[in-house]
Amino acid sequence: MSANPTSREESFLVTGGTRLAGEIPVAGAKNSVLKLMAVALMARGRTTLTNCPAISDVPAMADVLRHLGCTVEITGDTVSIDTPAEVGHVADDKAAQRLRASVCILGPLVGRYHRAVIAMPGGDAIGSRPLNWHQTGLTLLGATTRMDHGRLVAEADRLTGARYGLKFPSVGATETFVTAAVLAEGTSVLENAAREPEIVDICTLLAKMGAKISGAGTSTITIEGVDELRPVSHRVVGDRIVAATWAMGAVMTRGDVTVTGIDPMNIHVVLENLRAVGADVETGEDRVRVRQEGRPIARNIRTLPFPGFPTDLQPMAIALASVSDGLSVVTENLFEARFRFVEEMIRMGVDAETDGHHAKIRGRERLDSATVWASDIRAGAGLVLAGMCADEVTEVCEVFHIDRGYSDFVGNVRSLGGVIERVDTSR
Ligand code: UD1
């Protein structure tokens, strides 16, 4: 796995004017693998995860687990985690602040060890990301939680099953509640649970480990507590966001891309939108082919929890709107700061404005190349796609963000015929 931490001073130079074409496999999902690694804390012995992506967040999560006392090996696409009988309960502040997903150790630690101390996590700058619903879930199960010098402290004498109705189907709060409840005494029910494929993947792993969970992938998850979990092997679900990135790139560059390693149902709504803008979409069991001839048609898109259009693809939706024929309105319902991306598109000559949750974008046939900044993983990928539709060379700065979520981004873009290089701008 080649996922060395990359410098903040690296940029991508993207030459516009090529169409993306060819076949590309996607690896396991970032938003699943990091949670699965945390779930390994819940069983003594060796948990093995395959199909892991070569992204920099994986070694960062490995460091979080090592700090707690686990032995973690990363070999190719396999991550093995050896969990001792007892692990620490205080997460390393620096490692945890490097990645948002460090919050996913909260449920497993409280569930198995009845205590956890985590720094308020870092990650993408896409808006305020409170943990109040995580705390409520743990409190209902019998824990106490408090903030102490910038850290969240959770403790319990014992955990007992509880019923919790989420105000909003939060992915993270669903994971915290489910992971804490699997080792609680008695039955727990989570209503208005998140239904993302990554939640299903986590529940599948937990069930293999001996947990009793039903309803994963629906709005009501029921958990009957068990005494202990055993370590197992598991293949990480394919990354639907990466898959859809390449599919949307095919439409923007009027290309022809086949993505493999993904259940097309996991990006069903995205594919419906691509059909509506004029793309020809064919799906197979684990693959999808997307072809576009001519200019895409403008279309309004709004982000919603799964099965709706994912917020993680909102920058790509804006990039697509920027080259589409007509006016598109993109509505962001999850993370308020994601519209920073629009400012970067304006640098590229796009006529766009934002108003609260809405961005209005009038597309152009071809974008102006410019120097632009990746503010988070997905914004970075969206800017590269936009750069491919620009007249000359676009510099996308701070691409360490992209490396957190996309394996071998440059190699993959090149394999599809895109012209891109990584440069160190500090020299
Ligand atoms: C996860 C994903 C992220 C994705 C998001 C929504 C990971 C590592 N990250 O983030 O890529 O964009 O799901 O699909 O898996 N909220 C609260 N209080 C809480 C928890 C959440 O107000 O206690 C709010 C958030 O501010 C946000 C909304 O709920 O507005 C959705 O957040 P959530 O689904 O929890 O996202 P994450 O799990 O943080």
Describe this structure in words.
The structure is a single chain. The protein is α+β, with helices and mostly antiparallel strands and 427 residues long. Helices cover 30% and strands 25% of the residues. It is built from 14 helices and 23 strands. The chain has helices spanning 30-39, 57-67, 93-98, 106-113, 132-140, 171-181, 197-208, 240-252, 268-276, 314-322, 340-347, 377-387, 400-403, 409-415; strands at 10-15, 21-25, 45-50, 71-75, 78-83, 115-119, 144-148, 151-155, 163-165, 187-191, 212-214, 220-224, 233-235, 256-260, 280-283, 287-291, 301-302, 327-331, 351-355, 358-362, 371-373, 393-397, 419-424. The strands form six sheets. A four-stranded mixed sheet has the order 21-22-1-23, covered by helices on one side. A four-stranded mixed sheet has the order 2-14-16-15, covered by helices on one side. Strands 4-5-3-13 form a four-stranded mixed sheet, with helices on one face. Helix 4 packs parallel to helix 6 and helix 6 (171-181) runs parallel beside helix 7. The longest helix has 13 residues, at 240-252. The radius of gyration is 21 Å and the shape is globular. The two termini are 27 Å apart. Bound molecules: uridine-diphosphate-N-acetylglucosamine (UD1). Uridine-diphosphate-N-acetylglucosamine is lined by residues 31, 100-101, 129-134, 168, 170-173, 310-312, 334-335.
